[in-house]
Amino acid sequence: MSFEEEWAGLKANAAARMQLNGAPTADPRLAPSDGDLVIYDDELGKIGHFAYQLHNNLKADGKHARTTTEAAGTSLASDGFEMGKALTAASKAWDKQVGTLVDSCAHISNHLDFTKASKKKDDDWVATQVSASKISDYYDVPEEDTKPSIPKAQGPII
After folding, report:
1. Contact partners, residue 91, CB within 8 Å, separation at least 6
2. Is the model more confident about 85 or about 13?
3. C-alpha torsion sign, points 64, 68, 70, 72
4. On the chain, which terminus has fewer CB atoms closer than 10 Å, C or N?
5. HSE value, Cβ hemisphere, 13 Å, CA-based, for 30
6. Alpha-carbon dihedral 51, 57, 60, 62, rounded to 10 degrees
């Protein structure tokens, strides 16, 4: 077998296995089912809960050393040390980064709550539409040309 033939066989075999709907998985709950995206509420709940906890902990603990660091930076700067300015700048940069991380955690938690509520609303709407369309299956509506003629009323209508 030549290199080209072996290479073509390997590429064909890899291409057949690279289809996402056929990819093997160790967890059967994560196996794709007809290409639909499946997300379990308990998994989203855990992610949202961890993001909420991280948000609360970072909000409190991320600024734990802020006052002492700024005081040390100010004291060193007033004594003429350049390190004081650098320490104050590092403290400000740290506060900015902690703020960004706290905001990101809040965004994750809030987005998961919003997504869950939004998807429930969408699912309820679809369920209503499907059940309403099934009602029309039970109506026996004759075709236009086969409708019986309705006689007109004789005399006065009360």
Report:
1. 66, 69, 70, 73
2. 85
3. negative
4. C
5. 7
6. -90
Q: Are 103 and 125 in contact, with CB atoms under 8 Å apart?
A: no
- Write the pLDDT tens digit of every residue in 25-49: 555 555 555 555 566 777 777 888 8
Is residue 75 one of the residues assigned to a domain? yes
* Number of domains forming the structure of the chain: 1
- Does residue 157 belong to any structural domain of this protein? no
Q: Return the amino acid letter for 74.
A: T
Asked whether the CA dihedral 118, 119, 120, 126 is positive or negative, the reply is positive
Q: Which of 99, 105, 103 is nearest to 52 (CA)?
A: 105
Average pLDDT over residues 15-22: 57
Predicted confidence (pLDDT) per residue in 69-107, tens digit = 999 999 999 999 999 999 999 999 999 999 998 998 888
The token pair at 77 is 């700067």
> Are 90 and 29 within 8 A, CB to CB?
no
Distances (CA, A) of 122 to 86, 109, 127: 53, 20, 9
